[in-house]
Amino acid sequence: MNPRLNTLHAYPFEKLRALLGDSQSSLSPIPLSIGEPRHPAPQFVADTLAGELAKLSNYPTTKGIAELRQSIADWATRRFALAALDPDSQVLPVNGTREALFAFAQAVVSPADNALVCSPNPFYQIYEGAALLAGAQPHFLPCTADNGFIPDYDAVPAEIWQRCQLLYLCSPGNPSGAVTDIATLQKLIRLADQYDFVLASDECYSELYFDEQAPPAGLLQACADMGRNDYQRCVVFHSLSKRSNLPGLRSGFVAGDADILADFLLYRTYHGCAMPVQHQLASAAAWGDEQHVKDNRDRYREKFARVLAELDGCLDVSQPEASFYLWAKTPIADTDFAQQLFAQQHVTVLPGSYLSREVDGSNPGSGYVRMALVAELDNCVEAAARIRRFVESL
Question: Per residue in 67-113, pLDDT tens?
Fold first, then answer.
């Protein structure tokens, strides 16, 4: 067996199951732990998928059909005010961002004892597993309240940047919802130029924001503002799972530096991960429509307003800049909070320490829990009421 498999940590939800164990309750369970959207999938996407089932008889190509790549390029150009995005060389459909974020490191990292893959901490655990199995070591950049839950890139030593081959970004952030601004993104682009590493920006929450006049910036947008329409060293990852409530479609895209994508396409051709044609056609329809996305944001706005009103004065928590998570500070240890809340109120939340690693004696996720407001409104409000009762009982 590949010995690198032994370096992988247990996935957060495995640890959560072990923590919670079996609990009998007269209350119905309300899971706020997994970021699985529960809003209805757009009917027009389902209709497109059903209407194209004859395509089951066709092998899909790894590069994807031109119609999907064009729909993606048109969307990204509109959304991020790009001068251009070539659908033939700068866009690649993928089976969701999770698969692509992992595979990307396998294609771009050159294994070496001193190779580093940098990422925020807390982080999406795929980044760590991707680094380890690609033959690099993960290097974690703490995200705390003191730095607005965005890594302090100025504090990273030159020696780390010299060893860095790949930097994962996550904006809006998981779990905090913090958004990295254009100036910071451009600083990172200049650092990537200086030290010759690749920027991989996980932007799967980019369409879940609250101010319609101020959508989160993206890495390609930062490039375009610098006149870098080749997006050198920069690649972004987007998904329909959160934007369009389509987690089961397993559909997303990677876009950016054409040279990097050419090598990534070669890797993926051998990897065997082409998206089914009927899924591609349904995806093209989804990327071409914005009304259902705005309607989705409206649902989340109402949900956050109601839940935060219920939790006011109960927990140290506030509305994030974007995403569907609440990153709440806990009055007791985060694991104790999650365990006791489940036992008493049958509400499941994820301990923040399960989403991060201890570095230099400090775990930046400790003392927090992540709540995914993905269930329908009434369930989220009921969960908030139960959380209030639990906290008041402490």
Answer: 999 999 999 999 999 999 999 999 999 999 999 999 999 999 999 99
The backbone torsions φ and ψ at residue 161, rounded to the nearest 5 degrees and listed phi first, read: -60, -35
Round to whole Å and give the CA distance between 256 and 267: 16
**How many C-beta atoms surround the C-beta of residue 50 within 10 A?**
10
Which amino acid is residue 285, in one-letter code?
A
pLDDT tens profile 304-327: 999 999 999 999 999 999 999 999
3.40.640.10, 3.30.1360.70, 3.40.50.970, 3.40.50.2300: CATH of 57-288: 3.40.640.10
Sign, Cα dihedral of 264, 267, 273, 275: positive
DSSP letter, residue 177: -
pTM attached to this predicted model: 0.96
Delimit the domains of the chain by residue range. Answer: 3-41+292-393, 57-288
Q: Give the fold, CATH level 3, of 3-41+292-393.
A: Aspartate Aminotransferase, domain 1 (3.90.1150)
